[in-house]
């Protein structure tokens, strides 16, 4: 079966690059994120199949370089008795990583990949990269990489409010114990060590998950 794939990888420097320590410390994790984002956005098989019916692998390879400008080398192809592989070396300026944070470098790397894909399409007759009809495999909402995500309400908020009420209603010598799941043998031993269980209840958690609570009278 013919395969059509698009991957983005980071390769080590061919020779030491001054100031490349920061680049080396983050490029591999960033490349995984970029590869995942490209996979969600680009319909690789639909894009490549008309031009390469026997299969094709487009391999975008990041490498560090000293210059201040992105260096996109001419894509080259090879075929060793199987699907054609198009290798796309990309020289990434190490100066992109001088500052803190990953937001700006990530966006620059994404833009670089789309420039490379446009060049591949032009040179090999595949045309512009074909995008998916909808984003798949992740959140559809846009994410701002320059600020922390907005806090979301806890799925245990309702159970937590009920636990607060139970704690306020306890008498001297009583404990309120809460845990997820059913009461197993080990849990029964722990409750027995704490005291005598006077009441047990089940609270709703996220989805089908349940929060079990026990009101325990501690040993005198």
Concise structural overview:
The protein has 220 residues and is of the alpha/beta class. It contains 5 helices and 8 strands, in the order βααββββααβαββ. Residues 131-155 are annotated as: Disordered.
Task: Please give a structural write-up.
Residues 131-155 are annotated as: Disordered. The chain is an alpha/beta fold and 220 residues long. 32% of the residues lie in helices and 26% in strands. The protein has five helices and eight strands, in the order βααββββααβαββ. 20% of the residues are buried. A hairpin with a 5-residue loop joins strand 4 and strand 5. The strands form two sheets. Strands 1, 2, 3, 4 and 5 form a five-stranded mixed β-sheet that branches.
User: Helical stretch count?
Assistant: 5
Largest sheet: 5 strands, mixed
- Unreliable stretches (pLDDT < 50, length at least 5) are none
- What is the typical, i.e. mean, pLDDT? 84
Shape: elongated
Layout of strands and helices, then pairs:
Elements: E1 4-10, H1 21-41, H2 44-48, E2 56-65, E3 71-72, E4 76-78, E5 84-93, H3 103-124, H4 157-168, E6 174-180, H5 185-194, E7 195-204, E8 210-218
Parallel strand pairs: 1-2, 2-5
Antiparallel strand pairs: 3-5, 4-5, 6-8, 7-8
Helix pairs in contact: 1-3
Question: What are its keywords?
Answer:
220 residues, alpha/beta, 5-stranded mixed beta sheet, 3-stranded antiparallel beta sheet, 8 strands, 26% strand, elongated
């Amino acid at each position: 079966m013919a395969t059509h794939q698009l991957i983005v990888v980071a390769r080590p420097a061919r020779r030491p690059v001054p100031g490349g320590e920061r680049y080396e410390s983050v490029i591999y994790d960033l490349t995984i994120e970029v590869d995942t984002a490209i996979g969600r956005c680009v319909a690789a098989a639909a894009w490549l199949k008309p031009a390469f019916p026997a299969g094709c692998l487009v391999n975008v390879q990041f490498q560090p370089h000293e210059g201040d400008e992105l260096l996109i080398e001419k894509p080259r192809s090879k075929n060793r008795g199987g699907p054609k592989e198009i290798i796309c070396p990309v020289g990434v300026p190490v100066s992109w990583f001088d500052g803190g944070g990953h937001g700006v470098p990530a966006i620059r790397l994404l833009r670089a990949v789309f420039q490379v894909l446009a060049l591949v399409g032009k040179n090999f007759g595949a045309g512009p990269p074909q995008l998916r009809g909808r984003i798949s495999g992740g959140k559809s909402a846009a994410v701002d990489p320059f600020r922390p995500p907005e806090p979301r309400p806890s799925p245990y908020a309702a159970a937590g409010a009920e636990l607060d009420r139970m704690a306020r209603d306890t008498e001297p010598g009583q404990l309120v114990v809460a845990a997820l799941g059913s009461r197993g043998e080990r849990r029964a031993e722990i409750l027995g060590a704490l005291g005598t269980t006077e009441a047990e209840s089940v609270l709703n958690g996220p989805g089908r998950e349940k929060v079990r609570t026990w009101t325990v009278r501690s040993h005198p």
